[in-house]
Design goal:
about 110 residues; five-stranded mixed beta barrel; about 45% strand; OB fold (Dihydrolipoamide Acetyltransferase, E2P); alpha+beta
Length: about 110
Amino acid sequence: MDTTRNSRKELTGIVTSISGDKSIKVTYGYKNLHPRYRKVINRKTVVHVHDEKNDARIGDRVEIMETRPISRMKRWRLVKVIDRAPVYGQTVDADVEAAEAAKVGTEEE
């Protein structure tokens, strides 16, 4: 018996929604040519993705892979988070704390 796996589609997209426990919605875009007018049209598709570790957040850029049906809607799974979306409240607080720590360090010297 042959134990090799078939090649599976891999895509990158943006997390647009967290739709429950271990479930996210990912939107990926592609370009299509209009059949008559030959204008490039931007299209997008939303897929339901299985996130086993609840790792992704809204706005993250992620890599997903096609897999066997996991539920009625989910046919994709999260491979990895490529880029994290900025969290504005936490980022500002961390920057302020780092600036204060640097300021205190220079005053002691």
